[in-house]
TrEMBL record:
The keyword Coiled coil does not apply. It comes from the Bacteria. InterPro entries: CarboxyPept-like_regulatory. Residues 1-19 form the signal peptide. One of its GO terms (molecular function) is carboxypeptidase activity. This is Carboxypeptidase-like regulatory domain-containing protein.
Length: 293
């Protein structure tokens, strides 16, 4: 397997002249801290994540911008950077689909999402959500339960964690509501690995419209990796920082790519109007699903 590491230095040094803003996110009713809240700088491709105790820090270049706070089970909130010392999120009431527990046999399994491309590449994708679309096929009829999700990763630290998202598909083909109502945080080992995570407890089925699976990098202390390097221009030591793990990508031919960044979804197609029938070559997260009966 050939692994290439790209785009690391930019992410590490991009905030060198930024101011650090700190705050805490809490439940508006209980006052309890909320962990793993996604924080986005509105209309920008950088952000942060709250720690387990609800605290966060974020480097910003312009204090006039807004931050978007998003967490499963809570209403999204947009706050001016100058007012983020304490952010209180309001709980939402989920109208969940009825869950029917079926008598599973789990005697048949298929893995979907594999590609012919044997070269995996690693990028520091920053604090955005990259997705992979899984269409539904009639051949899945007898194996519609999602048993496991498998992810290829590269990490310089052990037990690095990421957040996994499952999205429904709206009428325009965009990622829509999240299928889960609670965070799915998973950890991976050091080095290059393919790790499988069992998700049977969520009783997920492949929707007939298909679904999007995405991952989100967690900008938290336990994922941080720092390295000192000599700046040849100034002859001083600089501390370079990045966050693991890296999810690996395949370079594949697809109709589109959806990415969430700066608080909104963007769609990449062959043409800007999105009407082209021609496929494009994209870097797609190396994520597979294992279905069972």
């Amino acid at each position: 397997m050939k692994i290439k590491i790209f785009s690391i230095l930019f992410f590490l040094t991009a905030f060198s002249v930024s101011a650090q803003i700190k705050g805490v996110v809490k439940d508006s009713i209980t006052g309890q801290p909320i962990p793993y809240v996604s924080i986005w700088v509105q209309n920008e491709n950088y952000g942060s994540t709250t720690e387990e105790n609800g605290t966060f820090s974020i480097n910003v270049s312009e204090k006039s911008k807004n931050l978007i706070f998003s967490a499963l089970g809570y209403e999204k909130k947009i706050v001016k950077i100058a007012e983020v010392r304490e952010v209180n999120l309001v709980q939402t009431t989920y109208q969940l689909d009825e869950i029917i527990i079926s008598n599973r046999k789990e005697k048949r399994e298929i893995e979907i999402g594999q590609t012919d491309n044997a070269i995996l590449e690693a990028f520091d994708n920053g604090p955005r959500i990259d997705t992979k679309f899984f269409p539904y096929y009639a051949s899945y009829k007898k194996t519609r339960f999602i048993k496991k999700i498998t992810i290829f990763t590269d990490s310089k630290i052990d037990n690095a964690s990421i957040k996994i998202h499952f999205y429904k598909v709206d009428s325009n083909g965009f990622p829509a509501d999240e299928i889960l109502d609670k965070n799915l945080i998973v950890s991976v080992g050091k080095g290059v690995n393919k790790t499988a995570f069992n998700v049977t407890k969520f009783n997920l089925k492949m929707p007939l419209e298909g679904l999007f699976v995405g991952f989100e990098k967690l900008i938290i202390e336990s994922n941080k990796f720092e390295k000192s390097m000599l700046d040849k221009n100034t002859n001083t030591l600089q501390t370079l920082r990045t966050y693991y793990p890296f999810v690996l990508y395949n370079f594949v031919e697809k109709d589109f790519l959806y990415t969430f960044s700066g608080g909104k979804w963007s769609r990449q197609t062959n043409q800007s109007d999105g009407n082209s029938q021609n496929k494009i070559m994209i870097y797609e997260p190396a994520i597979n699903l294992i279905l069972t009966n």
